[in-house]
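Project standup — Tuesday

K.O.: blocked on the structure for the chain from last sprint. Re-posting the sequence here as requested.
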Amino acid sequence: MEEDKGSVNSKDCSSRLKQAEARLEAMQAIGMALASTLELDKVMEIVMDQVTKLLYADRSSLYLVDEDRGELWSMVAQGGNMEEIRLPLDKGVAGWVAANGKTVNLVDAYKDQRFDPEIDSRTGYKTISMLCMPVRNPESRIIGVVQVLNKKGGRFTVGDEKLLQALASQAAVSIENSRLYLQVVNRNMELDEARMQLEKRVKELNLLYELEKKVSTAGDLSSLLDQVLAKAMEVVGAEAGSILLKEGDKGELYFKTALGEKKDAIKRIKLPMEKGVAGFVARTGQARIANDLHNDPLFASDIAEKISYETRNIICVPLGEREQPLGALELLNKDDRGSGTNFDEDDMRLLTLVAGQTARAIVIEREAEEARRADRLSTIGRMLAGVMHDFKTPMTIISGYAQMLAQVGDDATRDEYASTIVRQVDVINKMIQEMLSYARGESEVLLHRVHLDRFFDEMQRMLMPQFQEKGIDLEVDLKYSGSARLDEDKLRRLVQNIARNAYDALEKGGIFRIEVDLDESSNQVLLYFEDNGPGIAPEIRDKVFESFATHGKKGGTGLGLAIAKKFVLDHGGEISFTTKEKQGTRFLVKLPRGE
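H.V.: unblocked you, prediction finished:
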């Protein structure tokens, strides 16, 4: 009997030793798992496997507390086809343990009113014995519940409870470490995301800055659009691109500019508004990415075939307001410099920025062109309104000589008067041509020898009748009476415009004096035009040679001195003036003698 007892004790000791070794191995495995990774899923899977093994159970589950939703959810649930389980904090044994913070050890779960058989019904599993214990963090706050089911060969013991408590403590440390790790990882991810967003915003701001510089420095719209399109292709990464604008009310788009292969061929094509991706975008104002062209009903394959261009994908955004787009900005064939060969939302955002600046530049240019057109029309109108006034001098001469022609009897005088009338008609015709040339900005100087004595003698005879009507003395002093190579018609208009300017300014009894001299050192003919009128008003002295600069002159056009200056500059000369209030004005014209 003593041998039998000894044998039993020996077997019992051996069994306990094996159990202790198994538990030691399990604890080492758990320790290694905790030390090897911070990935909570992996750690908890290893821990729960060892819990099941150490407690000789059928399976184990770990529930974590979801404080935001007031629930427990199964982080680790062993057993085939197990799904995630979520429990209210007040439901089931696990919910009760989480709410009360006490361990529950059940021999027969179905006899305990806290047990909820619904999970067994849903999973097809039969729960008999159960050991359920709260998992507390180092601050003793309950962060989860560990649940062990169906002890093999009996019920869970007090020793099992102590062992599970130790394992739960280790699990709590692992959970907290993993959560801290995940918080750091998430924070780093947030920082990376913030950095990426910041880089995008910086890229967008740099793009806007570059576009603004191009808009500000571009010489003309075509050059600007070429630069903007090139920038769009660069930042988005595309092989070709185009800017299409609506053509009036024709229901068509024309290619304002295009870059890339086949750019010249595509510019010759007009696209109906109801056709193609660009037509859809320009018609609806909706941006579009087409990465799968073969299955895209909007893709106008016939156009690509017509110019022999292989199109892989398209991104297109409207220009201007969505309700009434000006046209479309389209890029083709994403290159492989980036992460992929498809256009994406980031590309869309960048291209939309480019399109916004492009539309603004187009609108500004169109408004400027409209203003220039209106200004030209206004200029023409004002010029036409002043034509009769500008013709006053030759018309007065023609009228006077026509009256004298009717009164004279000898043929020689009649011929002289008739010749004077014909010359004045010719002057009127040339005045018309010069005014039109001035309006068009044209310059043509026909130089030939002009005998200044004969020229100014004729000018004095032409101007005298009109000046005498107003009681103005006209004096001509030829200190130099030689010749110079000048455009005689333009010189005549120069003298007439300055003389008429003085005539309009002078009151009855005034004096207008013309003096001709020669500066031998510079070989320049000097023309002085002086009156004793009221002087030029201070407010227009800085712009007296500008078009339509007039002050207080009834019927004045403000073109006389502007045209005079143009004639002087056409000859390579200079014009200046001095003026004093109530003392008069003196113009000095310097013209190359050319001989």
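K.O.: great, moving the ticket to review. The chain has a mean pLDDT of 80. The first strand starts at residue 57 and ends at 66.
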